[in-house]
Amino acid sequence: MLNHIESTSQGMLIEAPPDLVKKIVYQIRRLMQAGELYTKELNKKYLVTAAQLNCLLALYENGPLPASQIAKLIMVKSSTVTGIVDRLELKGLVTRVRNSPDRRVINIELTEAGRKLAENAPPPIQQRIVDGLKRLPRNDVEQIVQGLNMLTHMLEVQDLPVE
Length: 163
Prior knowledge:
Elements: E1 5-7, E2 13-15, H1 18-46, H2 50-62, E3 65-66, H3 67-74, H4 78-90, E4 94-97, E5 107-110, H5 112-120, H6 125-134, H7 138-155
Antiparallel strand pairs: 1-2, 3-5, 4-5
Helix pairs in contact: 2-3, 2-5, 3-4
């Protein structure tokens, strides 16, 4: 059974109604399913994943970049970008270029095929969320941030008790 304990302003703990907990879990599942469906459609129509599309769009909007800068723009680890770039390179959508005096600096740049895909692909799924949030009053957005912060805090790894 899905139960959640809340703290009142007086510090007392009360149990959240099970129907509300179920609604929250249901909405989280819907968000996850939407992301999965988006990725499946991208893969079927454009033969790329959402992460790969995000990388292509970052390069399209900013020009050639080192992997570390791509990682910052698409909010993933640099090691993740390495795998993404490897797969995009195999597909002929990007290339690694050493074009600075320091040969250790490697920039990733779009090929012509990568540029065409970036121009024609749909916007990333998070753009729909960004567009929707822009239409909401600031107070509503702040409430969403607060709720999501609470949910993500619940998912953080907790130290296991020492026996």
